[in-house]
Amino acid sequence: MSAIIRFDHASVAVREKTILTDISLTLFPGDKAVLSGKSGSGKSSILKTVLGLLPITLGTVYVNEIPLTPTSVQFIRQCAAYIGQEPMLGADSVRAAMLLPFQFKAHRGHKPTETQLTEVLQRLHLPKSILNQSCNRISGGEKQRIALARGLLLGKRLYLLDEVTSALDNESKHAVFDVFSDSQLTVLSVAHDPDWVERCSLVIQIESGQVAEVKQYGNT
Question: pTM of the entire structure?
């Protein structure tokens, strides 16, 4: 089975300061992995490295067995959906934000129907009426779920998640858990939420920019 994400002794430095050292980790299809550790330990930097936002100084990072390079980075970003704590939705209204990716050539022929929009919102416990709201007027938790809904409509299989349950009530959180219980979705996440960590098949402990421990559990 080919790896979805593979760090092969990768180190990252910003302004000559090393922030990740000799990172080696592998995610296979369907893995639900969480990066755990103290604030400032380098967890979010690992997500940013996968997206090509931080420079790799040693080693290699692979996504779908393609090495991350300045040439491949755009293709690799198209493979993944990144959802941060306060996603930038890129449009004035929620409806426009949901449909924004489908204006581009790669997705133009796959614009979702009204029924598909409604169904994906319902899966994430969001009312259809939110489509008419301004992106500036919805909560951080709603923005996260809108970004997730957009990823699902685009058929994304790889998700990079940064504290996606931190702003959610219990009911909304379990709706997100249900979405990611899908064995076809692969997740690399940063989280402090014990409920989220409990549902992950890999818990990767990060300390001072290094992998300190990897615990593997049965897929949930």
Answer: 0.91
